[in-house]
Design a protein that fits this description.
This protein is 21% helix and 35% strand. It contains one helix and five strands, in the order ββαβββ.
Amino acid sequence: MEIKIGVVNMHKELTCTVRDKDKLETFLRDISVAISEQSSMIWFEDDSGRRVGVPADKLAYVEVESDRERRVGFARS
């Protein structure tokens, strides 16, 4: 699944890929805990081991896209 993270005053969003559903739940829970505890930084790590830190007060949104078939071209549905 692809997770898109919006950051205040940034025109480009961060994108992480997580394949394991349990890891996704942990990922989302860690974000909620960091916000509720008013942490200064939230650290994100994807399946490839890439880590990115975002100031917690600058987090704008978190969007989770499910794994679905992506169509390319002019196929009829």
